[in-house]
Amino acid sequence: MGNKQKQKSALEEISIRGLGVIESSNIEFKSGLTVLTGETGAGKTMVLTALSLVLGSKSDSDLVRQGAERASVTGKFAVPRSLAAQIVESGGEIDDESVIITRTLSAQGKSRVLVGGAVSSAASVSAFASSLVEIHAQSSSSKLTKPAVARELLDRYAAADLIAYQSVFHQYHELINRIKELEQQLKERDSQLAQLTEFAAEFSKVAPKSGELSVIDNEIARLGSVEQLNQAVTTSLNLLENEELSAFNLLQQVRKGLDQVRGKDNSLDQIGERFSENLLNLQDISSDLNSYLSNLAADPNRFEKLQDRKASLNSLLKKHGKGSDRLVAFEQLIIDGQLVKEKIADLSGGSDRVIVLQKEAQELFTKLADAGFTLSKQRKASAEKLASAVTTEIKALSMPNAKFLIQVSTADGSNPSNYSAFGLDEISILFAAHTGAAALPLNKVASGGELSRVMLALEVVIAEAEPIGTYIFDEVDAGVGGKAAVEVGRRLAKLAKNAQVIVITHLPQVAVWADNHLVVKKSENGLVTQSDVIEIDENQRKVEIARMLSGQEDSKTAQTHATELLAIVRNS
Protein backbone atom coordinates (compact mmCIF):
# COMPACT_ATOMS: atom_id res chain seq x y z
CA MET A 1 0.00 0.00 0.00
CA GLY A 2 1.04 3.59 -0.59
CA ASN A 3 2.04 6.28 1.87
CA LYS A 4 -1.56 7.13 2.58
CA GLN A 5 -2.14 3.82 4.30
CA LYS A 6 0.56 4.62 6.87
CA GLN A 7 -1.59 7.51 8.05
CA LYS A 8 -4.44 5.08 8.75
CA SER A 9 -5.07 2.35 11.29
CA ALA A 10 -4.99 -1.36 10.36
CA LEU A 11 -6.15 -4.59 12.00
CA GLU A 12 -3.03 -6.78 12.34
CA GLU A 13 -4.23 -9.76 14.32
CA ILE A 14 -7.18 -11.17 16.23
CA SER A 15 -6.98 -13.96 18.80
CA ILE A 16 -10.18 -15.77 19.87
CA ARG A 17 -10.65 -18.26 22.74
CA GLY A 18 -13.89 -19.97 23.78
CA LEU A 19 -16.30 -17.87 21.68
CA GLY A 20 -19.28 -19.67 20.14
CA VAL A 21 -18.04 -22.46 17.86
CA ILE A 22 -14.47 -21.13 18.04
CA GLU A 23 -12.41 -23.00 20.62
CA SER A 24 -9.09 -21.31 19.89
CA SER A 25 -7.92 -19.35 16.89
CA ASN A 26 -5.30 -16.77 15.95
CA ILE A 27 -5.84 -14.90 12.67
CA GLU A 28 -3.34 -12.52 11.09
CA PHE A 29 -4.62 -9.87 8.68
CA LYS A 30 -2.68 -8.17 5.90
CA SER A 31 -3.26 -5.02 3.88
CA GLY A 32 -5.44 -4.99 0.75
CA LEU A 33 -8.60 -7.09 0.33
CA THR A 34 -8.96 -10.13 2.60
CA VAL A 35 -11.89 -12.52 2.19
CA LEU A 36 -13.10 -15.05 4.75
CA THR A 37 -14.96 -18.00 3.27
CA GLY A 38 -16.08 -21.39 4.57
CA GLU A 39 -19.09 -23.64 4.85
CA THR A 40 -22.23 -22.40 6.60
CA GLY A 41 -21.91 -22.68 10.37
CA ALA A 42 -18.11 -22.82 10.23
CA GLY A 43 -17.77 -19.68 12.34
CA LYS A 44 -17.08 -16.94 9.74
CA THR A 45 -19.53 -14.53 11.32
CA MET A 46 -18.19 -15.37 14.80
CA VAL A 47 -14.94 -13.67 13.69
CA LEU A 48 -17.00 -10.50 13.10
CA THR A 49 -18.71 -10.96 16.49
CA ALA A 50 -15.27 -11.26 18.13
CA LEU A 51 -14.10 -8.05 16.52
CA SER A 52 -17.30 -6.23 17.57
CA LEU A 53 -16.63 -7.30 21.18
CA VAL A 54 -13.06 -5.98 21.01
CA LEU A 55 -14.43 -2.68 19.69
CA GLY A 56 -16.76 -2.23 22.67
CA SER A 57 -20.09 -3.73 21.54
CA LYS A 58 -22.60 -5.03 24.09
CA SER A 59 -21.53 -8.35 25.59
CA ASP A 60 -23.73 -11.43 25.96
CA SER A 61 -22.81 -14.42 28.14
CA ASP A 62 -24.54 -16.70 25.57
CA LEU A 63 -21.52 -16.07 23.31
CA VAL A 64 -19.25 -18.01 25.71
CA ARG A 65 -18.68 -21.50 24.28
CA GLN A 66 -20.66 -24.17 26.10
CA GLY A 67 -18.56 -25.74 28.81
CA ALA A 68 -16.03 -22.88 28.87
CA GLU A 69 -15.68 -20.54 31.87
CA ARG A 70 -14.96 -17.50 29.75
CA ALA A 71 -14.46 -16.19 26.24
CA SER A 72 -11.47 -14.01 25.45
CA VAL A 73 -10.83 -11.92 22.34
CA THR A 74 -7.70 -9.87 21.64
CA GLY A 75 -7.28 -7.53 18.70
CA LYS A 76 -4.01 -5.87 17.68
CA PHE A 77 -4.24 -2.67 15.63
CA ALA A 78 -1.59 -0.46 14.08
CA VAL A 79 -2.58 3.14 14.86
CA PRO A 80 -1.47 6.50 13.43
CA ARG A 81 -0.10 9.15 15.80
CA SER A 82 -3.30 11.23 15.93
CA LEU A 83 -5.42 8.25 17.00
CA ALA A 84 -2.73 7.01 19.41
CA ALA A 85 -2.97 10.35 21.26
CA GLN A 86 -6.77 9.92 21.58
CA ILE A 87 -6.35 6.36 22.95
CA VAL A 88 -3.73 7.45 25.51
CA GLU A 89 -5.98 10.36 26.54
CA SER A 90 -8.81 7.90 27.24
CA GLY A 91 -6.51 5.91 29.60
CA GLY A 92 -5.24 3.26 27.17
CA GLU A 93 -1.62 2.33 26.47
CA ILE A 94 0.17 2.25 23.09
CA ASP A 95 3.22 0.09 22.39
CA ASP A 96 5.35 0.60 19.28
CA GLU A 97 2.56 2.35 17.29
CA SER A 98 0.14 -0.52 18.03
CA VAL A 99 -2.69 -0.95 20.48
CA ILE A 100 -3.76 -4.33 21.86
CA ILE A 101 -7.38 -4.48 23.06
CA THR A 102 -8.53 -7.50 25.08
CA ARG A 103 -12.14 -8.25 25.99
CA THR A 104 -12.90 -11.08 28.41
CA LEU A 105 -16.43 -12.32 28.95
CA SER A 106 -17.34 -14.78 31.71
CA ALA A 107 -20.12 -17.36 31.52
CA GLN A 108 -21.79 -15.37 34.34
CA GLY A 109 -21.95 -12.29 32.10
CA LYS A 110 -19.09 -10.26 33.60
CA SER A 111 -17.03 -8.34 31.07
CA ARG A 112 -13.48 -6.94 31.35
CA VAL A 113 -11.65 -4.66 28.92
CA LEU A 114 -7.91 -3.95 28.70
CA VAL A 115 -6.41 -1.39 26.32
CA GLY A 116 -2.69 -2.08 26.00
CA GLY A 117 -2.66 -3.64 29.48
CA ALA A 118 -4.51 -0.74 31.15
CA VAL A 119 -7.95 -1.51 32.58
CA SER A 120 -10.59 0.29 30.54
CA SER A 121 -14.30 -0.01 29.69
CA ALA A 122 -16.39 -0.93 26.65
CA ALA A 123 -17.67 2.67 26.54
CA SER A 124 -14.11 4.10 26.39
CA VAL A 125 -13.20 1.73 23.56
CA SER A 126 -16.42 2.56 21.66
CA ALA A 127 -15.42 6.24 21.76
CA PHE A 128 -12.37 5.66 19.53
CA ALA A 129 -13.44 2.38 17.82
CA SER A 130 -15.28 4.16 15.01
CA SER A 131 -11.94 5.73 14.00
CA LEU A 132 -10.31 2.28 13.90
CA VAL A 133 -12.80 0.11 12.02
CA GLU A 134 -16.03 0.61 10.08
CA ILE A 135 -18.19 -2.54 10.26
CA HIS A 136 -20.95 -3.13 7.71
CA ALA A 137 -23.34 -5.99 8.26
CA GLN A 138 -26.61 -5.87 6.33
CA SER A 139 -28.38 -4.71 9.49
CA SER A 140 -25.96 -1.80 9.96
CA SER A 141 -26.72 -0.43 6.47
CA SER A 142 -30.07 0.76 7.83
CA LYS A 143 -28.21 3.50 9.71
CA LEU A 144 -28.02 5.34 6.37
CA THR A 145 -31.68 6.23 6.88
CA LYS A 146 -30.86 8.31 9.98
CA PRO A 147 -30.45 12.06 9.28
CA ALA A 148 -27.49 12.35 11.70
CA VAL A 149 -25.58 9.59 9.85
CA ALA A 150 -26.41 11.12 6.45
CA ARG A 151 -25.10 14.49 7.67
CA GLU A 152 -21.94 12.91 9.07
CA LEU A 153 -21.21 11.12 5.77
CA LEU A 154 -21.72 14.31 3.75
CA ASP A 155 -19.56 16.35 6.14
CA ARG A 156 -16.78 13.75 5.93
CA TYR A 157 -16.87 13.92 2.12
CA ALA A 158 -17.06 17.73 2.12
CA ALA A 159 -14.31 18.00 4.77
CA ALA A 160 -16.69 20.48 6.43
CA ASP A 161 -15.15 22.60 9.20
CA LEU A 162 -17.69 21.94 11.94
CA ILE A 163 -15.24 22.92 14.69
CA ALA A 164 -15.15 26.59 13.57
CA TYR A 165 -18.95 26.72 13.33
CA GLN A 166 -19.49 24.97 16.67
CA SER A 167 -17.06 27.31 18.43
CA VAL A 168 -19.21 30.33 17.44
CA PHE A 169 -22.45 28.40 18.15
CA HIS A 170 -21.38 27.56 21.73
CA GLN A 171 -20.10 31.09 22.42
CA TYR A 172 -23.41 32.52 21.22
CA HIS A 173 -25.53 30.18 23.37
CA GLU A 174 -23.39 30.72 26.46
CA LEU A 175 -23.88 34.49 26.06
CA ILE A 176 -27.66 34.14 25.47
CA ASN A 177 -27.94 32.00 28.63
CA ARG A 178 -25.92 34.57 30.56
CA ILE A 179 -28.27 37.37 29.39
CA LYS A 180 -31.36 35.32 30.39
CA GLU A 181 -29.86 34.61 33.81
CA LEU A 182 -28.99 38.28 34.29
CA GLU A 183 -32.46 39.45 33.25
CA GLN A 184 -33.99 37.02 35.74
CA GLN A 185 -31.63 38.16 38.48
CA LEU A 186 -32.33 41.84 37.78
CA LYS A 187 -35.92 41.23 38.82
CA GLU A 188 -34.61 40.37 42.26
CA ARG A 189 -31.48 42.52 42.02
CA ASP A 190 -31.28 43.97 45.54
CA SER A 191 -31.66 40.67 47.37
CA GLN A 192 -29.38 38.92 44.83
CA LEU A 193 -26.68 41.58 45.24
CA ALA A 194 -26.88 41.31 49.03
CA GLN A 195 -26.54 37.52 48.86
CA LEU A 196 -23.67 37.64 46.37
CA THR A 197 -21.80 40.34 48.32
CA GLU A 198 -22.16 38.35 51.55
CA PHE A 199 -20.96 35.19 49.81
CA ALA A 200 -17.99 37.05 48.22
CA ALA A 201 -16.88 38.38 51.62
CA GLU A 202 -17.19 35.00 53.36
CA PHE A 203 -15.51 33.18 50.47
CA SER A 204 -12.62 35.65 50.45
CA LYS A 205 -12.18 35.30 54.23
CA VAL A 206 -12.10 31.48 54.20
CA ALA A 207 -10.30 31.24 50.80
CA PRO A 208 -10.92 27.52 50.21
CA LYS A 209 -8.63 25.64 47.82
CA SER A 210 -9.54 22.87 45.38
CA GLY A 211 -9.10 19.39 46.89
CA GLU A 212 -8.43 20.84 50.35
CA LEU A 213 -11.39 19.20 52.09
CA SER A 214 -10.30 15.64 51.17
CA VAL A 215 -6.72 16.32 52.31
CA ILE A 216 -7.92 17.71 55.66
CA ASP A 217 -10.33 14.79 56.20
CA ASN A 218 -7.51 12.32 55.64
CA GLU A 219 -5.03 14.11 57.91
CA ILE A 220 -7.60 14.49 60.72
CA ALA A 221 -8.41 10.77 60.45
CA ARG A 222 -4.67 9.97 60.74
CA LEU A 223 -3.90 12.35 63.61
CA GLY A 224 -7.01 11.20 65.47
CA SER A 225 -5.89 7.59 65.27
CA VAL A 226 -2.16 7.88 66.01
CA GLU A 227 -2.31 5.41 68.94
CA GLN A 228 -4.23 2.78 66.95
CA LEU A 229 -1.94 3.23 63.94
CA ASN A 230 1.15 2.99 66.17
CA GLN A 231 -0.12 -0.18 67.82
CA ALA A 232 -1.06 -1.85 64.51
CA VAL A 233 2.29 -1.08 62.86
CA THR A 234 4.32 -2.03 66.00
CA THR A 235 2.49 -5.36 66.31
CA SER A 236 3.08 -6.05 62.60
CA LEU A 237 6.78 -5.24 62.90
CA ASN A 238 7.13 -7.45 66.01
CA LEU A 239 5.64 -10.36 64.11
CA LEU A 240 7.98 -9.73 61.19
CA GLU A 241 11.21 -8.93 63.07
CA ASN A 242 11.06 -10.37 66.63
CA GLU A 243 14.42 -11.92 67.50
CA GLU A 244 13.04 -15.10 69.05
CA LEU A 245 10.26 -15.99 66.66
CA SER A 246 9.71 -13.80 63.63
CA ALA A 247 8.09 -14.26 60.24
CA PHE A 248 11.40 -13.27 58.64
CA ASN A 249 13.37 -15.94 60.55
CA LEU A 250 10.90 -18.63 59.46
CA LEU A 251 10.93 -17.40 55.86
CA GLN A 252 14.76 -17.25 55.83
CA GLN A 253 14.76 -20.92 56.91
CA VAL A 254 12.48 -21.73 53.98
CA ARG A 255 14.87 -19.92 51.64
CA LYS A 256 17.90 -21.79 53.08
CA GLY A 257 16.08 -25.09 52.57
CA LEU A 258 15.40 -24.23 48.92
CA ASP A 259 19.01 -22.98 48.45
CA GLN A 260 20.36 -26.39 49.57
CA VAL A 261 18.77 -28.06 46.52
CA ARG A 262 19.47 -25.28 44.03
CA GLY A 263 20.59 -26.60 40.63
CA LYS A 264 18.93 -30.00 41.04
CA ASP A 265 15.63 -29.12 39.31
CA ASN A 266 15.10 -26.06 37.11
CA SER A 267 11.38 -25.77 37.88
CA LEU A 268 12.06 -25.76 41.65
CA ASP A 269 14.84 -23.20 41.11
CA GLN A 270 12.29 -20.89 39.43
CA ILE A 271 9.95 -21.26 42.43
CA GLY A 272 12.90 -20.54 44.72
CA GLU A 273 13.74 -17.38 42.78
CA ARG A 274 10.15 -16.18 43.06
CA PHE A 275 10.23 -16.92 46.80
CA SER A 276 13.48 -14.91 47.24
CA GLU A 277 12.03 -12.03 45.25
CA ASN A 278 8.88 -11.97 47.42
CA LEU A 279 11.03 -12.14 50.57
CA LEU A 280 12.92 -9.04 49.39
CA ASN A 281 9.56 -7.34 48.78
CA LEU A 282 8.51 -8.20 52.34
CA GLN A 283 11.78 -6.76 53.68
CA ASP A 284 11.05 -3.56 51.71
CA ILE A 285 7.60 -3.45 53.33
CA SER A 286 9.19 -3.92 56.74
CA SER A 287 11.55 -1.01 56.02
CA ASP A 288 8.58 1.12 54.85
CA LEU A 289 6.66 0.28 58.05
CA ASN A 290 9.67 1.32 60.20
CA SER A 291 9.92 4.56 58.26
CA TYR A 292 6.16 5.16 58.64
CA LEU A 293 6.39 4.49 62.40
CA SER A 294 9.29 6.90 62.88
CA ASN A 295 7.28 9.68 61.19
CA LEU A 296 4.07 8.90 63.07
CA ALA A 297 3.66 11.28 65.92
CA ALA A 298 0.78 12.95 67.71
CA ASP A 299 0.55 16.67 67.01
CA PRO A 300 -2.24 18.16 69.18
CA ASN A 301 -1.67 21.70 67.84
CA ARG A 302 -1.85 20.60 64.21
CA PHE A 303 -4.93 18.46 64.97
CA GLU A 304 -6.70 21.42 66.57
CA LYS A 305 -5.83 23.77 63.68
CA LEU A 306 -7.12 21.24 61.15
CA GLN A 307 -10.36 20.84 63.10
CA ASP A 308 -10.83 24.62 63.11
CA ARG A 309 -10.11 24.85 59.37
CA LYS A 310 -12.51 22.00 58.65
CA ALA A 311 -15.22 23.73 60.70
CA SER A 312 -14.72 26.96 58.68
CA LEU A 313 -14.93 25.11 55.37
CA ASN A 314 -17.98 23.11 56.48
CA SER A 315 -19.71 26.27 57.68
CA LEU A 316 -19.13 27.96 54.30
CA LEU A 317 -20.24 24.80 52.51
CA LYS A 318 -23.38 24.39 54.60
CA LYS A 319 -24.41 27.99 53.97
CA HIS A 320 -23.56 28.32 50.28
CA GLY A 321 -22.99 24.81 48.92
CA LYS A 322 -25.34 23.09 46.43
CA GLY A 323 -26.05 19.38 46.14
CA SER A 324 -25.90 16.36 48.43
CA ASP A 325 -22.41 15.11 47.47
CA ARG A 326 -20.14 16.97 49.89
CA LEU A 327 -16.90 16.89 47.85
CA VAL A 328 -18.63 17.76 44.55
CA ALA A 329 -20.50 20.61 46.29
CA PHE A 330 -17.18 21.89 47.72
CA GLU A 331 -15.51 22.02 44.28
CA GLN A 332 -18.59 23.78 42.83
CA LEU A 333 -18.43 26.27 45.70
CA ILE A 334 -14.88 27.18 44.65
CA ILE A 335 -16.04 27.72 41.04
CA ASP A 336 -18.93 29.91 42.29
CA GLY A 337 -16.45 31.88 44.41
CA GLN A 338 -14.21 32.51 41.42
CA LEU A 339 -17.15 33.81 39.34
CA VAL A 340 -18.88 35.85 42.06
CA LYS A 341 -17.11 39.17 41.27
CA GLU A 342 -18.19 38.92 37.63
CA LYS A 343 -21.80 38.26 38.71
CA ILE A 344 -21.74 41.24 41.09
CA ALA A 345 -20.40 43.41 38.22
CA ASP A 346 -23.18 42.16 35.92
CA LEU A 347 -25.88 42.88 38.51
CA SER A 348 -24.41 46.23 39.54
CA GLY A 349 -24.35 47.27 35.88
CA GLY A 350 -28.06 46.49 35.78
CA SER A 351 -29.99 47.07 32.56
CA ASP A 352 -26.99 48.87 31.00
CA ARG A 353 -25.06 45.66 31.32
CA VAL A 354 -27.87 43.73 29.57
CA ILE A 355 -27.74 46.18 26.63
CA VAL A 356 -23.93 45.70 26.30
CA LEU A 357 -24.30 41.92 26.39
CA GLN A 358 -27.17 41.98 23.87
CA LYS A 359 -24.99 43.99 21.49
CA GLU A 360 -22.23 41.38 21.90
CA ALA A 361 -24.80 38.65 21.24
CA GLN A 362 -25.96 40.36 18.04
CA GLU A 363 -22.37 40.54 16.79
CA LEU A 364 -21.87 36.86 17.62
CA PHE A 365 -25.14 35.96 15.86
CA THR A 366 -23.88 37.69 12.68
CA LYS A 367 -20.76 35.51 12.88
CA LEU A 368 -22.93 32.44 13.51
CA ALA A 369 -25.13 33.23 10.50
CA ASP A 370 -22.05 33.63 8.29
CA ALA A 371 -20.57 30.33 9.54
CA GLY A 372 -23.94 28.57 9.05
CA PHE A 373 -24.32 29.96 5.52
CA THR A 374 -20.77 28.83 4.60
CA LEU A 375 -21.47 25.34 6.00
CA SER A 376 -24.76 25.03 4.06
CA LYS A 377 -23.13 26.23 0.82
CA GLN A 378 -20.30 23.72 1.26
CA ARG A 379 -22.77 20.89 1.94
CA LYS A 380 -24.97 21.67 -1.09
CA ALA A 381 -22.00 21.75 -3.48
CA SER A 382 -20.60 18.49 -2.06
CA ALA A 383 -24.05 16.81 -1.97
CA GLU A 384 -24.34 17.09 -5.77
CA LYS A 385 -20.82 15.74 -6.35
CA LEU A 386 -21.26 12.89 -3.86
CA ALA A 387 -24.70 11.90 -5.21
CA SER A 388 -23.37 11.86 -8.77
CA ALA A 389 -20.31 9.77 -7.85
CA VAL A 390 -22.40 7.27 -5.81
CA THR A 391 -25.00 6.98 -8.62
CA THR A 392 -22.17 6.07 -11.03
CA GLU A 393 -20.98 3.37 -8.60
CA ILE A 394 -24.43 1.82 -7.95
CA LYS A 395 -25.21 1.64 -11.68
CA ALA A 396 -22.33 -0.84 -11.97
CA LEU A 397 -23.66 -2.84 -9.00
CA SER A 398 -26.57 -4.38 -10.97
CA MET A 399 -28.77 -1.30 -10.47
CA PRO A 400 -28.30 0.36 -13.93
CA ASN A 401 -31.30 2.70 -13.66
CA ALA A 402 -31.02 3.56 -9.95
CA LYS A 403 -30.45 7.11 -8.77
CA PHE A 404 -28.93 8.27 -5.49
CA LEU A 405 -29.73 11.76 -4.22
CA ILE A 406 -28.73 13.80 -1.18
CA GLN A 407 -31.25 16.41 -0.16
CA VAL A 408 -30.02 19.39 1.89
CA SER A 409 -32.96 21.26 3.49
CA THR A 410 -31.82 24.55 5.02
CA ALA A 411 -33.89 26.37 7.66
CA ASP A 412 -34.36 30.16 7.77
CA GLY A 413 -31.02 31.62 8.89
CA SER A 414 -32.56 34.81 10.30
CA ASN A 415 -34.22 32.89 13.14
CA PRO A 416 -31.72 32.07 15.95
CA SER A 417 -33.82 29.11 17.17
CA ASN A 418 -33.24 27.32 13.83
CA TYR A 419 -29.52 26.84 14.54
CA SER A 420 -28.33 23.55 16.03
CA ALA A 421 -24.83 22.41 16.96
CA PHE A 422 -24.58 21.07 13.37
CA GLY A 423 -25.86 24.08 11.44
CA LEU A 424 -29.15 24.90 9.73
CA ASP A 425 -29.36 21.83 7.52
CA GLU A 426 -31.25 18.58 7.60
CA ILE A 427 -29.69 15.98 5.33
CA SER A 428 -31.71 13.15 3.77
CA ILE A 429 -30.61 10.35 1.49
CA LEU A 430 -33.15 9.63 -1.27
CA PHE A 431 -33.18 6.72 -3.70
CA ALA A 432 -35.01 5.82 -6.89
CA ALA A 433 -34.56 2.17 -7.88
CA HIS A 434 -35.51 2.64 -11.56
CA THR A 435 -36.16 5.26 -14.24
CA GLY A 436 -39.32 7.27 -13.69
CA ALA A 437 -39.64 6.29 -10.03
CA ALA A 438 -39.95 9.11 -7.51
CA ALA A 439 -36.91 9.54 -5.29
CA LEU A 440 -37.99 8.59 -1.77
CA PRO A 441 -36.22 8.08 1.59
CA LEU A 442 -33.84 5.16 1.29
CA ASN A 443 -35.56 2.94 3.89
CA LYS A 444 -38.90 3.15 2.05
CA VAL A 445 -37.66 1.99 -1.34
CA ALA A 446 -34.43 -0.01 -0.97
CA SER A 447 -34.31 -3.73 -0.12
CA GLY A 448 -31.73 -5.08 2.32
CA GLY A 449 -29.41 -6.10 -0.52
CA GLU A 450 -29.79 -2.71 -2.24
CA LEU A 451 -29.07 -0.90 1.03
CA SER A 452 -25.84 -2.89 1.42
CA ARG A 453 -24.74 -2.05 -2.12
CA VAL A 454 -25.57 1.65 -1.64
CA MET A 455 -23.43 1.61 1.53
CA LEU A 456 -20.58 -0.07 -0.40
CA ALA A 457 -20.83 2.52 -3.19
CA LEU A 458 -20.74 5.34 -0.61
CA GLU A 459 -17.70 3.92 1.15
CA VAL A 460 -15.82 3.50 -2.15
CA VAL A 461 -16.46 7.17 -3.00
CA ILE A 462 -15.70 8.55 0.48
CA ALA A 463 -12.74 6.26 1.32
CA GLU A 464 -10.02 8.33 -0.28
CA ALA A 465 -10.64 11.29 2.05
CA GLU A 466 -11.49 9.00 4.95
CA PRO A 467 -9.15 8.51 7.94
CA ILE A 468 -10.62 5.05 8.76
CA GLY A 469 -8.08 2.34 7.95
CA THR A 470 -10.19 -0.84 8.06
CA TYR A 471 -13.57 -1.73 6.59
CA ILE A 472 -15.32 -5.00 7.36
CA PHE A 473 -18.26 -6.19 5.25
CA ASP A 474 -20.59 -9.04 6.13
CA GLU A 475 -23.48 -9.94 3.80
CA VAL A 476 -22.73 -6.95 1.55
CA ASP A 477 -23.31 -9.36 -1.36
CA ALA A 478 -26.76 -10.49 -0.11
CA GLY A 479 -29.34 -10.68 -2.89
CA VAL A 480 -26.83 -10.42 -5.75
CA GLY A 481 -25.24 -12.95 -8.04
CA GLY A 482 -23.62 -13.35 -11.45
CA LYS A 483 -22.28 -10.17 -13.06
CA ALA A 484 -23.47 -7.94 -10.18
CA ALA A 485 -21.51 -10.08 -7.72
CA VAL A 486 -18.36 -9.69 -9.85
CA GLU A 487 -18.90 -5.91 -9.74
CA VAL A 488 -19.37 -5.98 -5.94
CA GLY A 489 -15.99 -7.74 -5.76
CA ARG A 490 -14.44 -5.19 -8.13
CA ARG A 491 -15.70 -2.30 -5.92
CA LEU A 492 -14.36 -3.95 -2.77
CA ALA A 493 -10.97 -4.34 -4.49
CA LYS A 494 -11.13 -0.65 -5.47
CA LEU A 495 -11.89 0.32 -1.86
CA ALA A 496 -8.91 -1.82 -0.76
CA LYS A 497 -6.55 0.48 -2.68
CA ASN A 498 -7.19 3.16 -0.02
CA ALA A 499 -7.87 1.02 3.06
CA GLN A 500 -7.66 -2.46 4.52
CA VAL A 501 -10.86 -4.34 3.56
CA ILE A 502 -12.05 -7.59 5.16
CA VAL A 503 -15.08 -9.35 3.63
CA ILE A 504 -17.05 -12.31 4.93
CA THR A 505 -18.67 -13.80 1.82
CA HIS A 506 -20.34 -16.88 0.36
CA LEU A 507 -20.07 -15.63 -3.24
CA PRO A 508 -17.19 -16.97 -5.38
CA GLN A 509 -17.50 -13.93 -7.70
CA VAL A 510 -16.53 -11.73 -4.71
CA ALA A 511 -13.90 -14.10 -3.25
CA VAL A 512 -11.84 -14.17 -6.49
CA TRP A 513 -10.88 -10.50 -6.00
CA ALA A 514 -9.02 -11.15 -2.76
CA ASP A 515 -5.39 -10.24 -2.20
CA ASN A 516 -5.50 -12.62 0.80
CA HIS A 517 -7.93 -15.53 1.13
CA LEU A 518 -8.71 -17.11 4.53
CA VAL A 519 -10.84 -20.25 4.86
CA VAL A 520 -12.65 -21.09 8.10
CA LYS A 521 -13.23 -24.82 8.57
CA LYS A 522 -14.99 -26.82 11.25
CA SER A 523 -13.37 -29.84 12.94
CA GLU A 524 -15.26 -33.10 13.15
CA ASN A 525 -16.40 -32.19 16.67
CA GLY A 526 -18.10 -29.05 15.29
CA LEU A 527 -15.60 -26.57 16.74
CA VAL A 528 -13.16 -24.21 15.08
CA THR A 529 -9.71 -24.79 16.57
CA GLN A 530 -6.27 -23.23 16.09
CA SER A 531 -5.57 -25.00 12.80
CA ASP A 532 -8.97 -24.32 11.24
CA VAL A 533 -8.47 -20.77 9.93
CA ILE A 534 -5.92 -21.01 7.16
CA GLU A 535 -4.56 -18.71 4.47
CA ILE A 536 -4.70 -20.51 1.11
CA ASP A 537 -2.44 -20.21 -1.95
CA GLU A 538 -3.45 -19.84 -5.61
CA ASN A 539 -3.96 -23.59 -6.23
CA GLN A 540 -5.95 -24.06 -3.02
CA ARG A 541 -8.07 -21.03 -3.98
CA LYS A 542 -9.22 -22.81 -7.18
CA VAL A 543 -10.47 -25.71 -5.04
CA GLU A 544 -12.21 -23.37 -2.54
CA ILE A 545 -13.81 -21.24 -5.30
CA ALA A 546 -14.99 -24.49 -6.98
CA ARG A 547 -16.57 -25.58 -3.67
CA MET A 548 -18.32 -22.19 -3.41
CA LEU A 549 -19.58 -22.51 -6.99
CA SER A 550 -20.97 -26.04 -6.83
CA GLY A 551 -20.67 -27.32 -3.28
CA GLN A 552 -18.20 -29.92 -4.58
CA GLU A 553 -14.55 -28.97 -4.47
CA ASP A 554 -13.45 -31.83 -6.77
CA SER A 555 -15.93 -30.99 -9.55
CA LYS A 556 -13.88 -30.50 -12.77
CA THR A 557 -16.54 -28.18 -14.29
CA ALA A 558 -16.54 -26.03 -11.15
CA GLN A 559 -12.72 -25.91 -11.13
CA THR A 560 -12.72 -24.75 -14.78
CA HIS A 561 -15.26 -22.04 -13.87
CA ALA A 562 -13.12 -21.07 -10.87
CA THR A 563 -10.05 -20.72 -13.14
CA GLU A 564 -12.07 -18.45 -15.48
CA LEU A 565 -13.23 -16.24 -12.59
CA LEU A 566 -9.67 -15.87 -11.28
CA ALA A 567 -8.53 -14.97 -14.80
CA ILE A 568 -11.14 -12.13 -14.96
CA VAL A 569 -9.47 -10.54 -11.93
CA ARG A 570 -5.94 -11.01 -13.28
CA ASN A 571 -6.87 -9.36 -16.57
CA SER A 572 -8.92 -6.49 -15.16
TrEMBL record:
Keywords of this entry: ATP-binding, Coiled coil, DNA damage, DNA repair, Nucleotide-binding
CDD domains reported for this sequence: ABC_RecN
One term of GO molecular function: ATP binding
Gene Ontology cellular-component annotations: bacterial nucleoid
Gene3D superfamilies: P-loop containing nucleotide triphosphate hydrolases (3.40.50.300)
Stated family: Belongs to the RecN family.
Function: May be involved in recombinational repair of damaged DNA.
Identification of the protein by name: DNA repair protein RecN
Originating organism: Candidatus Nanopelagicus hibericus
